[in-house]
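Open question from group meeting: does this chain pack into something compact, or does most of it stay loose? Before anyone orders reagents, we agreed to write out a predicted structure and look at it together. Recording both the input and the output here so the notebook holds the full record.
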Amino acid sequence: MFKNIKTAEDLQAEELAAEQARKVTEAKAYLAKTDWIISKVGEAAMLGEGAEALKTKYAVEIAAREESRALINLHE
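Structure tokens returned:
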């Protein structure tokens, strides 16, 4: 009769799982949105045209991408 009743712990675990899934989704979206930066730096490196300057210019985004990848790896 009471098989489908969830405990507070069950609800908390579900909320945590949903929050983690949301964060992973956001992280994947950020990576997709900023893929062009990596392509641009890679192309500049391949052509010998100032990849280091681009790495400096996009340092914040590159660091955020690393954090996004770490979050995805942690929760998947």
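Observations to bring back to the group:
The chain has three helices and no strands.
The mean pLDDT is 93.
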